[in-house]
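# step 3/5: fold
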Amino acid sequence: MNAEHSSIESAEALVERLARAGRAAQRVLARLNSAEKSAALHAAAASLRAAEAEVLAANARDMAAGEAAGLTSALLDRLRLDSARLAGIAAAVDQVADLPDPVGQVIDASQPANGLALSRVRIPIGLIAIVYESRPNVTADAAALCVASGNAVLLRGGSEAVHSNRAIHAALVQGLESEGIPAEAVQLVPTQDRAAVGAMLTAAGLIDMIVPRGGKSLVARVQADARVPVLAHLDGICHTYIHAAADPAKAEAIALNAKLRRTGICGSMETLLLDAQFPAGQVVVSALLDAGCELRGDHRACALDTRIGPASAEDWDTEYLDAILSVAVVDGLDSALDHIARHSSNHTDAIVSQDQAACERFLAEVDSAIVMANASTQFADGGEFGLGAEIGIATGRLHARGPVALEGLTTYKWVARGTGQIRP
């Protein structure tokens, strides 16, 4: 098919056709064993490495278009590929290939009084749709995770990464097909028409779950309009609280890394909370300022350094994805917990302290998908958690939470084995 689907075919007809093909391919996937899926994914990774020149050339086209369109530095960083990043993407596919297969795992088993042998067994969800922006690595991550968990996937990337996505997709499919997996198991929607997203959101009965990865407006639209179950998070408003008993050197290193290692990822710290009794608050904010970070603070934070500008009410609820940071001075752990409860997006929040009791209370009481003690929030990543790659980080409370990888892409069914029982 051409890069753009025929104007004669409506978005609804296109999505239905792709979804039905994907569902048929998923039935083939469901019959494959772990070794067969692993071999196919290793072949896909090898194919991606072999296509480096084509992928990087396609990415250069996207980067040039993005720069001309005035994309922010954070978005350009998400979009940019080089040899090292592409090698990392291929390595993540290989890593997923070698992870334990969750499909067929027995979650638990029992035998009630009626004599039935009952078990709950993990199975694929079916056909998963991924709607995403900017990051071409999602094309490979999503494909690998879905194939490994026995799901077919329908990918719809953003227009800013269209050439990169198509090149990565073509390479992956070539590798998968070489090991007998139908091309329709991993499909890329061949149009950037926004109507296709609308058709995906309403394709109940054809698409089993939809996962949005992108900006707040995209995720909000998906959550508002979807008639298909959604697995999503809206923002990554991540906090780091430096407790009174924090080690100053650790606090400074963690704050710098949490904010500035990569500002455009969802695990980047967006608010720093400094305990009023922490003795080195001025040192920490000065280090951030000297490193080129803009700070916006409450009145006590502004008093620490004249370079800190005043924060507005909106700053505490803003995901900057840039070298900008909100800073507040709080009166102890209770105040920090209150601030996080009001402003956290329930993604990732961290405490820095040598006081073990304070750490344990923070870990117990902060209601986020990921909570950390004495570590940078930049570790909020499926690969860093040993999951290979991730579909995203879910901040809801149903089905899956935190980094969503293989297990999060399965559901289960009850299996009952009897010996002729009939119910009285």
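# step 4/5: annotate
Residues 159 and 299 are 42 Å apart (CA to CA).
# step 5/5: archive (pending)
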